[in-house]
Amino acid sequence: MQLEKFLTAAEAIVGCDNVSREPTSGAPEGLDGSVAYGDPFPLSRPHRPGPAVRPDTVDQVRELVRAANRFEVPMWTVSRGKNLGYGGSAPVVDRNVILDLHRMNKIIEINEEYAYAIVEPGVTFIQLYEEIKKRKLNLWISVPAIGWGSVVGNTLERGIGYTQDAAHYKHQCGMEVVLPDGDLLRTGMGVVEDSKVWPLYSGGFGPGLDGLFFQSNYGIVTKMGIQFSPAPEAYTRILVEVPEEQDLAPLVGTMTDLMRRRIVANPPQLYGRMTLIIGAARRDPEIAKILGEHGNFARHIPQDLISKVSTILGLPAWCAGFALYGPPEAQAGLLEAVKRRFKQVKGAKVTHETFNAVPGEYLRSEDVTQDFLPQSGVPSIDHALAFSSKEDGLWHNCYSPVLPPSGRELYEWYVRAKKITEDHDLNFLADFHVFDRYIISINLIMFHPSAKARLHDVQYALMEDSKKLGYLEYRTHVSFMDATAAHQTFNNGAFGRFTTMLKDTIDPNGILSPGKQGIWNSTAKLARLGLEEK
Hints:
Blueprint lengths: L1 H13 L4 E2 L31 E2 L4 H14 L3 E4 L18 E4 L6 E5 L4 E4 L5 H11 L3 E2 L10 H6 L15 E7 L5 E3 L33 E8 L1 E2 L3 E9 L5 H13 L8 E4 H11 L1 H7 L11 H11 L4 E9 L1 H15 L6 E8 L38 E5 L2 E2 L3 H17 L6 E5 L4 E9 L7 H15 L11 H5 L4 H17 L15 H7 L6
Cofactor: FAD
Keywords: FAD, Flavoprotein, Oxidoreductase
Protein name: FAD-binding PCMH-type domain-containing protein
């Protein structure tokens, strides 16, 4: 009854066309042309979306939040809901209303001189790139592997790109946030009316509040400043290959040292034979024929088949892609430094390609021949084409712990995690993002839908093993948010007590995204544990 009252109020706020009573329509187009809400790769324990509401202004968001409080109807917020491998637009709590912000798609400002933009949550990486291209601005943005996602949503989830500005959350500057009571807040220098430095200086005066809204349910971000890099005069992409699995340790150690010394500025992406084999099977029917029944990823591909395909194609054990950006004079010296350092890694093969702007001009992203990694800031949806949400498609789930930046720890974890994955009859695909002082070590588990029942067991096994090593995920699927949060054990769970206290204080009705990242109101947490107070 309360839900019906809320939906009637929502129709008055956003219009009947922007309220979906059922989650089967209204979302931005996704895999296979679907416009339904939910997880395109649902695991064995579904998180089904409820109705959806789609505001297109900040005032509408505020009114919806007030109505949700009035009728005590929780809403699960998504910017666009394209979080593949982590749950898409599916809520933690079954049948929660989806607050879909994709219609809020205004680019408020792009500043070429200072290299920033202010955007609403519905703005995609593709949209921002196309606008920069249309205006012929000398700017390179950082984009993730699939460009149809929200700039704001990706940044709030601490998503990753491939240019010098790849750690998107570190390049956010200033937010506008609707709070759980419908009030409106601006962070940083946005506290000043008509501030001219809101997207330039993130510190502000007093406590920094921006961090409270990353991966949380404390507010709804309706505007964000994001900084990126001026277009370079020259760009060199580099690929390093090593022949043996154990070469991972010296390869990573060399890369992270080069990054700490500011020789390499963007985070290398590191991937292994399995990624190359998948790509080859999609392009070459003969390789697909060799894989045979294992090509649909319903089961673990035997090592003898992996070795056979690797020998036929001459595949390395590991590939690392990264780039150099800057004036041509600097590029030449940096490239020589990179090549000299990798001579110390046994068997390393270094290839590179340089693109130079016309003298006196800057290089635009579209002038660079694109490759496997969007290191020049050109977004696409090519990587999404490998997947299908259909019952005979290819699905994936991400297990994403953060590790120290030496190759020693990464190799130790990789060997253990690979064995755990294969023991569950699944395939480990390395998708490692290498930063100067940490590595986001994604086990990109691709699987046939018939294997989805094994995903929970392998996830929990990986979590327990990583816990023994002192590691935690930086991001997780909605099915595992509570379990991941349970590993925040310092001082008997002080972090969880604090996040619950904040939730109780600013969102006492539990209206915004209950359970996101394991954050609940105290009464909801007790109920979820089956420990309701008498």
